[in-house]
Amino acid sequence: MARRAEHRSRRKGRAATLALGVAFGLATTPVSHAAGHDRGAPGTQTDVGHAARPRATWTSKDAEAFWTPRRMAAAAPPERGTGRPAAASRRAPTAEHFEGVPSVGVLFSVDGEAREHHCTASVVHSPHGNLILTAGHCNPGARAAFVPQYRSGEDDQPYGVWAIEDSYAYSDRGTSGDAADRDVAFATVAPDDDGRRIEEVTGANVLAATPGYRNEVQVIGYPSVHSDPEDRAVRCATTTRRLAGTRQLRMDCNGFYGGTSGSPWLAGYDPHTRTGKVIGVIGGVNGGGPRGPHSDRTSYSPYFGKEILSLYDRATKGKHADDADED
Question: Do the beta carbons of residue 107 and residue 144 sit within 8 Å?
Fold first, then answer.
């Protein structure tokens, strides 16, 4: 019976990958053997690595017990930062604070000591209902947690605290040159105490190929409290365009400070389901934006093509670069 269930799960996984392959125009390519960088030399393979493999005993119950409201507050002191753009651009919209959505949240991690939420992540639909997407440079580290629709200072988070089991990213990712095109990562999330998968609880966005450089998107993220003491979600509806000289997208909206790396760029956002198609994330060149005093004004994203599909495929199968391919 167990073997039969495992076989059904694998068939479901292959079906989901095939559906994504059609969306990306890659249905005829075996995704587990897909070539690496689109602009690289023909036949170049890009390794898929993992940021860190947390201990098997780290569960969502452990994450919730560790990340208490007091510890979250201590890791994110409200007195830091100004919370206001130094000089808002008249040409660009400004992100608004709002209550957030269930499928988008923050990453907390423990690396020797507790530290504040440092990146944003979002739930994406997957065969096992346990996958989140963020930027590649947002290495969660060991004993990391994902908090959907994070509410600063709340005694109970609206959708709980979820342990991150494993993360998947390209080993040659970076924030400059061609490596910035691979600045994306997935992570698997442990079930809660009731055995539920995160997608059952929060819903999920759908991973989609970037349809072009010009898109209408809703971008949702969580700025670091270092820059925004409100410690709340922000959102902005804006239009993307190409970052000149790169295979990257850019969008202009004030208020996307540090901490918003990994924020999903949602096309076709539905206000009723509060989900959409993820066609980008804040990341890429310089970690997702220009350097300087007004860096919150402009954000970048890698262009989603066959590489992210290959990475998604490996994450849904739990396969790393050092794992042998299945027949």
Answer: yes
